[in-house]
């Protein structure tokens, strides 16, 4: 069998046992898009309008639900309607980072009840494996998936070297719930000790810090192109925020649509080149 990076999304979907991982790969294949749009805006009307506009071009929408100022539970109902209408999954970028008991409460309860609507969420590995036990006690019965933050896109990130390797080891020990990583590169075989043989593993790699027109922002963000991310670094999903909807939250839907189509096309072309499918 070819290395995971050379396999198609459909081939990889068939082997996934976690329901969220399988659904994401199947959606990518069905819609021919590896684009995830990150919708970081503060008004629910802007949030829902942008998602309705980009919906046809994405496999996944990424949220930071706690930045919505006028949040109420109807936002989640509308988000779920849009997810059904446009056939995409939902990823709340919550970046859990506490002890198991606390993260289980933060994931299941509070104002947002993230586990009840978000197919995928993520966690910092910094507390060690107990963060996975806490989150999986809530997420596994619901068929959810977890991504560990193995690397970050920001200048000076501390998530490098042995920290990244430990994150991959933690994921390997929790394959029922950990479906992959937020990272800047493929993680296949990372962190294996000399006496360990290379396992048959397929972790998804979702990658933020993607932009076609800028190299970064004024607050440490660093951008690479879809081609660098998908073809050169072997990542599976490109996560794009301001590159799609700009700095102006009220951006004209036509302009947002054009950018979403552009990123979708770039991401898909890079994937086709990676697996050797001619366009
Ligand atoms: P941007 O507008 O494309 O820069 O938004 C990127 C999004 O991805 C934003 O929601 C961040 O919180 C998120 N992100 C990131 O940019 N870099 C990282 O390493 C991680 C998340 Br983890």
Report on the architecture of this protein:
Strands 1-2-3-4-5-6-7-8 form an eight-stranded parallel β-barrel, surrounded by seven helices. Helix 3 crosses helix 10 (253-275) and helix 8 packs parallel to helix 10. It has one domain (4-275): TIM Barrel. The chain is an alpha/beta fold and 279 residues long. The model has no long low-confidence stretch (mean pLDDT 96). Helix 8 links the parallel strand 7 and strand 8 (237-240). It is built from ten helices and eight strands. The longest helix has 23 residues, at 253-275. Bound molecules: 5-bromo-uridine-5'-monophosphate. 5-bromo-uridine-5'-monophosphate binds next to strand 8 and helix 9.
Q: What name is given to the CATH topology?
A: TIM Barrel
How many structural units, i.e. domains? 1
Span of the ends, CA to CA? 23 Å
Figure out the total of helices.
Answer: 10
- What is the architecture at the second tier of CATH? Alpha-Beta Barrel
Please outline the major beta sheet.
Answer: 8 strands, parallel, barrel
By DSSP, the count of extended strands is 8
> Which class do the helix and strand fractions yield?
alpha/beta
The CATH superfamily name is Aldolase class I
Give me the side-by-side strand order of the main sheet.
1-2-3-4-5-6-7-8
- State the assembly state of the protein chains: single chain
Taken in chain order, the helices and strands follow as HHEHEHEHEHEHEEHEHH
Shape: globular
Helix content range: 25-40%
Strand content: 5-15%
